[in-house]
Amino acid sequence: MNVFTPGAVHDLIENPMIGNWNYILFVMLPGLVIGLWAQMKLHAAYRKYREVPVDSGLTGAEAARRILDNAGLTAMPVEEVEGELTDHYDPTKRALFLSSDNFHGRTIAAVGVAAHEAGHALQHQAAYALMNLRMALVPVTQFASYIYGGILLLGWFLGMMKVMLPIVIVVFGIITFFQLVTLPVEYDASARAKEQLFRLGLVRESEREGVSKMLHAAALTYVAALVSSVLTLLYYFGAARDNRS
Ligand SMILES: [Zn+2]
Fold first, then answer.
1. Cα separations in angstroms, 56 against 105, 137, 140, 201
2. Which H or E run includes 96?
3. What whole-number percentage of the chain has pLDDT above 70?
4. Could you tell me the end-to-end alpha-carbon distance of the chain, in angstroms, rounded to an integer?
5. pLDDT tens across 206-239, in order?
6. Which of 142-146, 149-153, 226-230 has the lowest mean pLDDT?
7. From residue 135, how far is each of 54, 113, 141, 166, 190 by CA, in Å?
8. pLDDT score at 19
9. Half-sphere exposure of 117 (CA within 13 A, CB side)
10. In which band, very low, low, confident or very high, does the pLDDT at 184 lie, cut at 50, 70 and 90?
11. Residue 117 Cα, ligand 1 centroid: separation in angstroms?
């Protein structure tokens, strides 16, 4: 794929983002569209399945508790956290945090999301290699995200984009690699969640489709983020290659 005309490289050097049509058409716009599409899919699925009661009558918190207890993680706290879809597993605190709706909700969405977060706790307990890698990458990725915007701005203002492009590629490459590692970790957490939900009888076989659709929609947002980053990275690579020629 070569969408990088010499003119575009000149634009990139002068102006890395704004007003650069190749960047807007082939990187920014597709990234934006796929990101919005994934968000819409997630919110549509969430709106639907937060209205569908789960047969077992369990809350998200209770379902997570059952999964954790069954795995011997009886001391792991399941706590309520503010916001919508703010659910997460914190490996440093070794605790589960569920948004109020999913903590208290007795719905397919609540139980599905809660089980997914419990799935991350199971990964941690099992020392799942990709999760360990992801955790090890967190500090360097945080640093890369922190300096990325500054490097772009500095390169642009000083007119040194050409010189700084290799640094930009390394820094953004770290961020993209982190997203790449995150993807299988997310799918694996959902797979573990579903396995436990059915094995422990927390949801019925007839509810499988709903749980799967809800978790699939959540995972799509990670796919969208990765696609967007890969496009950006390809763009930087193309610009760097054209710089040399
Ligand atoms: Zn997750």
1. 12, 39, 43, 8
2. strand 95-99
3. 91
4. 16
5. 999 999 999 999 999 999 999 999 999 988 888 8
6. 149-153
7. 33, 21, 10, 26, 18
8. 54
9. 32
10. very high
11. 6
User: By the 8 A CB rule, do 134 and 182 touch?
Assistant: yes
Among residues 115, 147, 126, 118, the alpha carbon closest in space to that of 211 is found at 115
Average pLDDT, rounded, for the chain: 90
Q: Which of 117, 195, 207, 209 is catalytic?
A: 117
pTM of the complete model:
0.87
Span from the CA of 78 to the centroid of ligand 1 (angstroms): 15
Q: Mention every residue, 6+ apart, whose C-beta is less than 8 A from residue 92.
A: none
Spacing, Cα 88 to ligand 1 middle (Å): 7
Backbone dihedral angles phi then psi of residue 80, each to the nearest 5 degrees: -90, 140
Is 195 in the active site? no
Helix axes 161-199, 6-14, angle to 10 degrees: 90
SS3 107: strand
